[in-house]
Design a protein that fits this description.
- This protein is α/β, with parallel strands linked by helices.
- The protein folds into two domains: 170 residues, Rossmann fold, CATH 3.40.50.1970; 206 residues, Dehydroquinate synthase-like - alpha domain (Dehydroquinate synthase-like, alpha domain, Up-down Bundle).
- 52% of the residues lie in helices and 11% in strands.
- The chain is built from 15 helices and eight strands.
- It is globular.
- The two termini are 34 Å apart.
- Bound molecules: nicotinamide-adenine-dinucleotide and fe (ii) ion.
- Nicotinamide-adenine-dinucleotide binds next to α4 and β6.
- The site of nicotinamide-adenine-dinucleotide (NAD) has 25 residues, from α4 and β6.
Length: 394
Amino acid sequence: MARFTLPRDIYYGVGSLSELKNLKGKKAIIVTGGHSMKASGFLDKTEQYLKEAGLEVTIFDGVEPDPSIETVMRGAERMREFQPDWIVSIGGGSPIDAAKAMWVFYEYPNAKFDDLITPFNFPKLRTKAKFLAIPSTSGTATEVTAFSVITDYAKGIKYPLADFEITPDVAIVDPEIVRSLPKKQVAYTGMDALTHAIESYVGTVATPFTECLSLKAIQMVNTYLLDSFNNPDGRGREEMHYAQCLAGMAFSNALLGITHSMAHKTGAVFSTGHIPHGCANAMYLPHVIEYNSNNKVALERYAQIAQALGIQGHDAHEQVQGLINRIHELNTLLGIPHSMKEFGVDEKEFYEKLPQFAHDAVLDACTGTNPNPIDDKKMAELFEHCYFNKPYKF
Ligand SMILES: NC(=O)c1ccc[n+]([C@@H]2O[C@H](COP(=O)([O-])OP(=O)(O)OC[C@H]3O[C@@H](n4cnc5c(N)ncnc54)[C@H](O)[C@@H]3O)[C@@H](O)[C@H]2O)c1
Ligand SMILES: [Fe+2]
């Protein structure tokens, strides 16, 4: 048996934030980040709409990027004091993910963070509150996913928590909220969304329920990402907000592949600086497609993606090459480096650390659903191709 889980309601479109006026409940806690939602006025609007719905409202703000366990525990404490029946989270992936984890410790004060690390091991939620998410970035799709990423800074480990219990009840996907996103973030998160869609389509647990979402998201990113990047007030920005959400609906149910394994394990290992998640995915994706295409089934799946994008070619190989070329082209037009070397990773440090991060990437949770098996040696080779932007023969 397979399972396919999404929020009960997804409100979307310009002005859909006002749907908050119709929320039925008594008390809502708004969980948000540092400044962006306050500065753009959307935090005030959220509070106002909830009050119009007759709810008593409190705000927990200041959730930092890549939220910590400590922030989660502080937020849960506030929730226990206030006793909300709605948790309303507005912001990027960071505050929404933090709010998801707070929810668990609000309902189960004695739960242990370590127990949540095991996938699909969460206690039953919704005994005290329901969850509504309003994304202000266009990439993580946490408003529709079963995931939350929390960092244990003492151990230096980022934990991806996973359970359908934390799939939100309601998502509001209002494109007006992402008009203020900086260009670089549009580029990185847009390529992250494309990677979500492609990896969920070719992965080993894709189903007819997820394939249609993945393919549509891929087509939309291909059509609208550049416009979103160049024109904050245009249609592309709006369509990308929906595309990333569709991709999230797919990958929450069909999981990901080794592009994500590699990005997870190289984000914070180099002294030359953090590689943003979407930027890492964008650099690695063409080489992962080349590597995976040595597997016949995967080759055919990538060819289907190319066909859906109208990419010409006499056979699957040519079509997949066309898809790879298109990803390189997008990276060029979005100002994303084509290799780890171009990003600025030092070559000596790359080789020193390669055996460890290649090993860690093989062990990453996303490797299990990749369509072509991989071991440490092949992973290290693949990373070399990503370092030099050297095509991988398939
Ligand atoms: N839960 C999931 O399914 C999932 C998936 C992928 C990644 N993640 C996690 O999500 C986090 C990253 O989330 P993110 O990329 O959305 O960024 P974020 O929430 O960390 O925000 C990044 C920055 O963008 C600013 N910002 C947010 N919205 C803005 C807007 N509309 N206008 C201007 N500035 C704005 C924020 O203030 C912040 O400084 C990471 O912790 C990552 O590991 C979660
Ligand atoms: Fe991602």
